Amino acid sequence: MVSKVLSATPFGFHGQLIEIEGDMSRGLPGLQIVGMGNKAVDESRDRVKSAIKNSLLDFPKEKIVINLAPAELPKDGTQFDLPIALAIMCLNKQLSPNDVANALFAGELALDGSLRPIRSSIVIAETAKQHNIQRVFVPVQNFSQASLVDGVEIIPVPDLKTLFLFLKGELKNIKTPPNDTMSGQLDSQIILDDIFGQDQAKRAVEIAVAGRHNILLSGPPGSGKTMLARAICSLLPAMNKSEIIDVTKLHSLGDKKATSEVINLRPFRSPHHTASRASIVGGGTKLQPGEISLAHHGVLFLDEILEYPRSVLEALRQPLEDHVVTISRVNGKFEFPANFILAATMNPCPCGFLGDTEKQCTCSQSQIINYQKKLSGPLLDRIDITVNVSRVPHDELMSKKQHSNEQHTTAKKNIQQAIYIQNNRYKSCGKYNGNLSSSDVVKLSMISPSAETFLNTAAKNLDLSARSYFKVIKVARTIADLENTKTVEIPHIAESLQYRQISL
To answer: What is the reported pLDDT for 276?
Structure first.
């Protein structure tokens, strides 16, 4: 006799349906699991056996073989404990095939039969929906996350015995926990009003948020670069449900702390400059999304970008252009979304005081050149806005001006207006000015003839690349949206060109 129970496992950004097949035959009593499972899957033999016995259910005294199909696909995780236990219970007829039909099961079993949370429950729920499976049984702690997926019934399972009684019809329903498991950033965010001076840089931050443009802030230590970058998150609008699902999926795959949580606030990822290439881009022995994917729909903050290894910085080229990162492995290619705002800061030289009006730079010319070479031309070309941030005078730092949220409120209102205009312009594409392709720029930028002539002259004088040329138009289009202007005019182009100049 062969039993079948359905489960699922993450496969890149998406899920793969797994059939748990069980066979029982005469021979020495034992449980064997085949189908390319890792150590966690192999160890489920003892967990399942103890969980069944401690739930006062019968464990067969026969030879049992469990196959995880498709067998050629590597399996990872503890979510197979529950379906393996159910497959065994079907073999000795404690459950019938109809009891587990049209349902998907996932959960880690404790030795006493209770269920522990698993990773990627939202991916498992999406896999069930794609295969028209009506019911998904997950641990109670995973209920909120899995419930984000519409079109499937999510049933929280506290323990194996309760699930057994429910499947047999002896228990009419299982109590549903409150759907309030949320996670995100703290409310105590930095806002523009917390930063003294830096009006031009604040304006650049506002433009970057409104059009989803990458931004680089350069200046001496203590000038407020880091605070300006951190203020970006406070200006971003709340995520919609689609964005919440994407972010939660990625964090459930790559962040151990977010296995059962719903991420409802935009991510702000700030990896240390010693982070490896795999941790930034993604991959590793266990394929996981990196920091650039965990920053999806949020901000990737690289503080002192020139301190990062050159190989890490160059790996950002493709994601910044395509908003997706492709990781190739022997068993296939995997894509993770990576649509984020890059906010980076840098010192102009190793000591940090090159061009400073108050403190003299102590670096040699060769040191300065070698330091600045870490930021390659092609990567700099992919950054829409660059701003030189100067030191704030000391007398402004101790000003008695009463703190208010005026700048933050005004900027947020302008950003909401610009986003509304972009949503109407690009309809359901979900694009922003910063995401436009070159062909889209030509079609949708609505640049006036005089502004185009002005731009062409400036591009020739400044020797702008084709990519920089279109980025100037994109930023100018955002500036026009902030002013609620239909066409891009010369002042918009002129301001945009200012953000292509940086002292390197």
So the answer is: 92
3-state secondary structure of 461: helix
pTM of the model: 0.90
Q: Are 94 and 117 in contact (CB under 8 A)?
A: no
Distance CA 237, CA 266 (A): 9
Alpha-carbon distance of 372 to 346, in angstroms, equals 10
| CB-CB contact of 340 with 268 (8 Å) | no
pLDDT digits (tens, 9 = 90+) for 318-375: 999 999 999 887 777 889 999 999 999 999 899 988 888 888 899 999 999 888 888 9
pLDDT of res. 187: 47
Name residue 72's amino acid: E
Q: Does a cis peptide bond (omega within 30 degrees of 0) precede residue 350? A: no
Phi/psi for 401 (5° steps) reads -60, 130
Establish how many alpha carbons lie within 13 A of residue 390's alpha carbon, considering only the half-sphere containing its beta carbon.
10
Cis peptide before 70 (omega within 30 of 0): yes
Q: Give 185's pLDDT tier (boundaries 50, 70, 90).
A: very low
Whole-number pLDDT of residue 195: 85
Q: Is the model's pLDDT at 302 over the cut of 50?
A: yes
The string of pLDDT tens digits covering residues 415-451 is 999 999 999 998 866 689 998 888 888 888 889 999 9
| Domains observed in the chain | 2-167 (3.30.230.10), 192-424 (3.40.50.300), 436-504 (1.10.8)
In the prediction, which pLDDT does 497 show?
95
Host H or E run for residue 441: helix 438-444
Pairing of strands 341-346, 299-302: parallel
Q: How many helices (H) and strands (E) does the chain have?
A: 22, 20
Task: Reply yes or no on whether the pLDDT at 159 is more than 80.
Answer: yes
Among residues 359, 305, 344, 15, the alpha carbon closest in space to that of 208 is found at 344
Burial (CB < 10 A; 0-12, 13-18, 19+), residue 439, is exposed
Output the six-digit token pair for 27: 């021979």
The dihedral built from the CA positions of residue 455, 457, 462 and 464, taken in this order, carries a sign that is: positive
Structure confidence at residue 12 (pLDDT): 87
Q: Give the list of residues 6+ apart from residue 311 with CB closer than 8 angstroms, or none.
A: 277
Q: Please tell me the distance from the alpha carbon of residue 342 to that of residue 485, in angstroms, as a whole number.
A: 26
Task: For residues 431 and 237, give the distance between their C-alpha atoms in angstroms, rounded to a whole number.
Answer: 15
Would you give the distance in Å from CA 140 to the centre of its chain? 24
Concatenating the DSSP letter of every residue in 391-431 gives: PPPHHHHT--PPP-SHHHHHHHHHHHHHHHHHHHHHGGG--
What is the SS3 assignment for 338? coil
